[in-house]
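It is worth pausing here to work through a concrete case rather than discussing structure prediction in the abstract. The textbook approach is simple: state the sequence, then state the predicted structure, then interpret. We follow exactly that order.
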Amino acid sequence: MTLLNDAQKADLKSKLKKLQDDYAKSIPEKLTEISTSWEQYVNRQDDASIHHLINCTHKLAGTAKTYGFAEIGTLASNAEDELIALHEQTPSDREISASSQAIERLVKYR
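Step two, the predicted structure:
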């Protein structure tokens, strides 16, 4: 088993920091996409819109936590849960207020 020397450790830390910084810069775009997609869903209330929202929040929940942004990851995970619950309701029974609040908390993270 080969251990990293100090120079290799420093190089690895630098690369990881750059990945984290690049990810941080992408968060506002991800939140804008979620916000826009939510508005589309509210207007259309179609399956394609909610599936897209669930996918966006799911990806954000996982990647945010991976890159060290636990708070936004948790907010995205909560929004995903609310969207799934909303999607599982019959169209006539859909109450979007809980999902709306979860999405609002997430996009306000900016």
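Step three, interpretation. The mean pLDDT is 91. The two ends are 43 Å apart (CA to CA).
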